[in-house]
Amino acid sequence: MESEEISIPLKKEAAEDYSADFKKEAGENIFDKTARTIFYVLGFLLPLWILPITASPLELNKAYLTYFLVIFALFFWLAGRIKTSSIDLPKSFFFFSLVLLALVWGLAVIFSQSPHFSFGGTGSEAGTFVSVLTGVIAAFLAMTLFQNAAHVFKWFLILFVSAGLVFIAKFFQMFFNFPFWKEIFNVSTFNLIGNWNNFGIFSGLIVFLSLAFLEIIKSKSIKLFPIIMLVLSFLALALVNFIALWWVLSVFLIIFLSYLFVLKKSVWIFFSWTSIVLIIVLFFLLAQPLAVKFISFTGVNINFLEVRPSWSATWTVVKSVLSEHFLVGSGPNTFLYDWLAFKPASLNDTLFWDARFSEGAGLLFSFLAEAGILGFLVFLLLFGSLLRRGFQIISRPDSSVAYHLLIASFFSAAYLWIMNIFYTPGFLIFIFSFIFSGLFIGLAIEQGFVKKYHFPLFKNNASGFISVILMISFLLFGLAGVFYFSQKYFAAYSFRQGLAVFNASGDLAKAEAMILRATKFDGRDYYWRSLVEINLEKLQRLLSRQDITGDEMMAQFQNILSDAIKYGQEAARINPADPLNWVTLAKVYEAVTPLGISGAAEAANNFYEEAKKRDPQSPAHFLAQARLAVQSANLEKARDLLNKAIVFKSDYTPARFLLAQIAVQEGKTNEAILRLEEARFLAPNDLGVLFQLGLLYYQKGDFERAKAVLERAVGINSDYSNARYFLGLAYDRLNKKTEALAQFERVLKLNPGHSEVMRILENIKKGKSALSGISSVPEERKEPPVD
Predict the structure, then answer these.
(1) To bridge 180 with a disulfide, which of 185, 469, 540, 771 should be the other Cys (CB 3.0-4.6 Å)?
(2) Angle CA 41–43–46, to nearest 5
(3) Which of these, 637, 642, 603, 635, lies nearest to 620 by C-alpha position?
(4) Is the predicted pLDDT of residue 319 greater than 80, yes or no?
(5) Which residues contact 235 (CB under 8 A, 6 or more apart)?
(6) What local confidence, expressed as pLDDT, does residue 221 receive?
(7) CA-wise closest residue to 429 among 135, 213, 212, 117
């Protein structure tokens, strides 16, 4: 393709200035041109792509767009090889490491604890075999289709246009409340890239590319566009204010500035755009209070909290996994299950004790657990070969535009991979890491830094026969991929439709039919879990009906129960590694235990045991087994299980709540209070002890002492909703209506829309008893009244 292709954004004379910098390419077949056009489409659409027809409108749709377009590009590239009867492969360690990466990830899937989850996951994870293989193919196609500076230049320009639209859409929504898709753009940090920090990483990429273009472009008349992109992307970067990103960007800018100084050998380089941006980046990095004031000055209310495992916690999990699965890890995309099995016990003392972290502190270190030492070494080889080639090229500076583009692509690829090491970016950043790496190697081939192997195909010998088999195999592989992803995407669409029906109308039969349709195309375990939840809801509705005979109810009950069990068993069969699947199956049997069904309690207990094996430090499983013991009137066993739950998490309110119920049921309230007072003396700030003690005083009718103890609890943790709930009831019993009203207003703020709390507030305002018209007494329930 000739350099005239890049003339769209340039004036005629400017394009002519660049013609000497770009090599003209010999006649190219239509299939390669089409494959490259698909990559242009991918570069433009991927940052913008969003469709609200799946449960995850952003990440999932970006992932499937990438899968389909990469497969289509592969089809046309293969057709091009058939037409030319030859193939060129890079003579590069980077290419070799890409092949190894795909092989190791495939091997890790075979030995995975959850092949179901390792192969494709939910569709949008960065660590599945499917996503890694797509990245490998995308990098390979980029390095073979973009061996011309004009093509890379055009790809960057298309990405700029797409990024500009992303920034404009975000700024209009943030600063002018522009009504973009209110159902989706409903929070200040929502954007078209991913979570808020991913938006910052993408903005940092565009900042760097803008600077590279400003250094590349010679004509002053066309520098306005990269300047605009620099301003937009840096404003986005400043609003995100991601500390780790400031550090990474500052290091890269220093290296890039050093490269420019060596290239131009002029002190004026320290007054360039790169120097100005570096100074501003250092300001945001070293003067964070002022940076925060700048953000507040914009008037934008940014509420973003991201919770990730610490580096020490990640390393604890990784070490435990490697001690059991050293070579290939626990399986791609299974860090979630590693986390549940090996997370630090101290985490139970935090608010995030039950968080299901699917990734560690950094994506590469998550891969160390998921793909073992082999996967980790392959990634080191991949990244190391990229850095080695890049620094080799930097040491031989050139003033041509093609060389500048080569350097820009190298720094961009290295920046993205560094963010993969020190962060856990989303699918877009992960795929862009591969694509930019491929663009860099492609330009390195053009500039002569990387050689190529040339292989003729379809000769009349054994190698020709093998090449025919390989080409046919790759084409069939592509067709299988289209079929596979089409099924998966249709299933995701059907699942979203089922959820929409359930939430909008509560039509359980229709919702179940739609989700069942999803399982026919993709048997995800969470689809089956959703079907279990629907059938448990159907059971509750059936048991509350008064308009059918006992025989009819029994027949329907058996059918619904049979379906619920079948769905739960299917979820556990597909993915036995996820404790949620065993908990869901256990809930089915627990739900019918009060009905006296033989063996239900034993089955539920066994399934909770299976969940405990996979999530051994969660107190929730002990609580569930204690509930079963209470239903079987085995209060001693229930108390023992609850005490074990409290060993894992001392402030576990549901366990303390049920212990208080058991004490009252056994008539041992005074003894329980005495024991808790002793515990309170030893641990005066233990919230679990304070809550249980206050609850027992309340149940005993000693409202003054209940008030004093619960006031202490909420003084330690002002967001302790259950403690505030019972403190409000104690105030109400003591006829302190104003204080009671304040407590329940706070509880409602912490639990928006809670119907019972709203009813209580209405009662208090009318001068009634707080619990007037509320049928069940809160202190006699099996579960705490609020979250």
Answers:
(1) 185
(2) 90
(3) 642
(4) yes
(5) 167, 171
(6) 65
(7) 135
